[in-house]
Amino acid sequence: MPHTPEPDEDDLDAVPPPQPVFHVEQALLGALLLDPHRLDDVSGITADSFSTAAHAALYAAISTLPQPDPAEHAKNTKWLDRVLTAGREQARGLTATYLHALVQVCPWPSHAPTYARMVEAEHARRRLLTAAEHLIHTVHDASLPLPVQTVLAEADALAAVVDDIANRFPPRSGVLPRTPAPPPTAPDHTEAVEEEQLLLATATARPDDIDAVRWLVPDDLTLPLHAGLWQCLTTLARRNEPIDPVTVLWEAQQRGLLDDGSEPGEVLRMLAEPAGSVGHWGERALQRSLLTTAEHTGRRIEAYAGDPANTPFQLVVGARRALADIAAVRTRWQNATGTTPPQQRRPTPATRAGPPTTTAAHAARSTRATR
After folding, report:
1. Closest CA to 301 of 184, 166, 181
2. Alpha-carbon distance 246 to 268, whole Å?
């Protein structure tokens, strides 16, 4: 006879088991309910540090109500009743049975400071994960009027979270996250490819302008062929050698750039169609590189923070190394745009969502074309 599930049986099976921090929070709350005076030994956490609304409400009640007389507390449950009443104002599902269960599951009330430190560490991981997610969402927000400025502000907010965690958990040298960094995402290069072709062609036609965009490096370009051709152009310019499509093609051959099957004729045709200015297309490429770097940084930190095996010490070291990539591109962006705004640190990241739209290259061609 087929098994007939009880009501909500399937739903209960689908509920994942509690994470270790849930049991740590239970032990801490049980210790404080059993011995309220141990709250004086607990530091570094607030109600927001807890993973559930019920635990947060209980901790808020425990930390705000006057502590009972120890002798009186041992005789009756009056103080526990007051905690329950106050906690129910924020979490209606709390029951007296759950409070007594918390007391029962606490192995050692004297370990309350250690339990609090564990709760603080897990809260730090969640904060870092949230800040990294905000940065990624900001990169992909097509509605932002000032995408670079907004993304950099979100990166500063993420860095502020890292600094706060470092103050609470000073990093140990050489302790890196065990989590491998995720591979870079593969965005749609359609518009980037066309704009980079215009950059290369315009630089070939106006080599005297190359020196003005020294802040642009080959890694800013999306395709290996484009990155190699830009390196050819900057090398020829540095040598003061003649620059035209043919000389660039010859330099590309010497560097093995055509070994991937690129047709020489196609390269010549691409380099023979300039439009706009080198500075404009260079800035467009650098902006795209900055946003790509910010996204990859966010995903690296997201991966680190998403792994509960990483300690706060490891998270700080890994996050700071990842943020260094944004700092390097930020400096070049400021050199390109002539702006050096101060980095603003915020205690809590603002909720935003992601990347900028770009002006279509064919539109720029029609408005800026100068052959």
Report:
1. 181
2. 7
Distance separating alpha carbons of residues 138 and 117, to the nearest angstrom? 32
66-101 pLDDT, tens per residue? 999 989 998 889 999 999 999 999 999 999 999 999
* Contact between 291 and 100 (Cβ < 8 Å): no
Residues 6+ apart with CB under 8 A from 227: 218, 219, 220, 221
Contact 206, 274 (CB under 8 A): yes
Structure tokens at 72: 């009186």
Do 230 and 200 meet the contact criterion of CB atoms below 8 Å apart?
A: yes
CA dist list (Å): 233 to 128, 207, 273, 296, 361: 42, 8, 15, 28, 21
Per-residue CA distances from 352 to 160, 251, 326 (Å): 16, 45, 18
DSSP-derived 3-state class of residue 121: helix
Q: CA-based angle 55:58:62, to the nearest 5?
A: 140
Distance CA 8, CA 5 (A): 8
In 173-256, the DSSP E strands lie at none
Amino acid occupying residue 190 = T
Buried b (16+ CB within 10 A) or exposed e, 13-38: eeeeeeeebeebbbbbbbbbbbbbeb
Give the amino acid at 302. E
Report the chain's C-alpha Rg in angstroms. 29
Token pair belonging to 290: 């900055």
Alpha-carbon torsion (221, 224, 229, 233), positive or negative: positive
- Please report how the helices 312-337 and 278-305 are oriented relative to each other, as an axis angle in degrees rounded to 10: 170
pTM for the whole structure: 0.81
Amino acid at residue number 293: T
Residue that the structure tokens 């007051």 belong to? 82
Q: What angle (nearest 5°) sits at the alpha carbon of residue 306, between those of residues 305 and 307?
A: 90
pLDDT tens digit string along 178-228?
A: 888 888 776 667 789 999 999 999 999 999 999 999 999 999 999 999 999
**Sign of the Cα pseudo-torsion (246, 251, 253, 256, in order):** negative
Amino acid found at 165:
I
The residue written with tokens 């007389």 in the block is: 69
